Fold this protein.
Amino acid sequence: MKVLVINCGSSSLKYQLIDSKTEEVLAKGLCERIGIDGSMITHQPAGGEKKTEEIPMPDHTEAVKLVIERLTDEKVGVIASLDEIGAVGHRIVHGGESFAGSVVIDENVLNAIKECSDLAPLHNPANLIGIDSCRKIMPNVPMVAVFDTAFHQTMPKKAYLYGLPYEYYEKYKVRRYGFHGTSHDFVSKRAAEILGKDRKDLRIIVCHMGNGASVSAVKYGESVDTSMGLTPLEGLIMGTRSGDLDPAIIGFLAEKENLTASEVIDICNKKSGIYGMTGISSDFRDLLKAIQEGNEQAKVVRDAYAYRVGKYIGAYTAAMGGVDVIVFTAGIGENNSMIRGCIGEYMEFLGTKIDEEKNKVAGEEAIISTDDSKVTVMVVPTNEELAIARETVRLTE
Ligand code: AMP
């Protein structure tokens, strides 16, 4: 079956067409600036050239239409007609407490996703628009919703409750949900597979370090804790997000800078993290370049980044009563040996040793700990699109 995977933002739409048998990506692309002047579509067939065109896209339905045109185009297309698309998998950011797994989309599911919009006002409405647009153009194709939060629904209450008046949980479902669930699930499963073990026998810590970043504790196959919370703002220092903060800072800065609470939170989301701390860029590669050029502040930011990850590894080791495997994934975790080495220093108390030579790996599956290390440390590239495609096939075939 050919599965179209859709990841829809408020003004963007990322897509991949995946052959579920071979798990090959047949084509992928991105629509940007939907509903804004200067809309662009970038399309790339497997093995072919990446091509960006500026075409007006007043709404997401028009974007989906253009995607289908590219996929079925005589020159850059990879399928003869729309009929070849067997199912569509949609990435949905917030499933609240309603979804502990992926589901086939029907009216009830749409209503439940809508109800979760309060918890993710920037993401869920955009995800719904993506579903709606695809249904208009492919009314008879089954569609599946895969949630970022679902894998973490196994977290126990002691891990997901905040120390707030309980009525806010009861009234508004204010609690920790966690995100990147598709990645934490995929990577922990794959790590166990590589080791030839059953995930149910392992305590795994997954460090997903991309532009967004989170750590999870996967105990005997289930997520028991993760660093992101009600929203993706909590936890690690990220590209532009602050991660953990004293909540009193919001009021303090609002008063000092004459801002509203939501303006301060916007700063915490979009102007903080590596970007805000360095004043250079949110991109980790720019941080590394600045370190090479002798920028002392960049070094401090790298150390703060690694320290935060190290603290979470320590905390999750305690939460699980030990750890068997620690896995690095996503853009930074997969590619950067220096930061893995820095984080490795915080694992030494566990009898964990990273092998310098093995740690040179980038973007590939590998065990990077020494043979006598008490904990196995690995690099496992994540693939959220493939995970969504697999879920879509599982529920529709
Ligand atoms: P992601 O969100 O998973 O795509 O990851 C994006 C982040 O990964 C950005 O901060 C990139 O700078 C970082 N990244 C990608 N490639 C490398 C690399 N070779 N070395 C260090 N960081 C990288």
About this structure: The pocket of adenosine monophosphate is lined by residues 210-211, 239, 283-285, 330-332, 335-336 (CB under 6 Å). Residues 198-379 form a domain with the Nucleotidyltransferase; domain 5 fold (CATH 3.30.420.40). The longest strand covers residues 24-32. The chain has a mean pLDDT of 96.
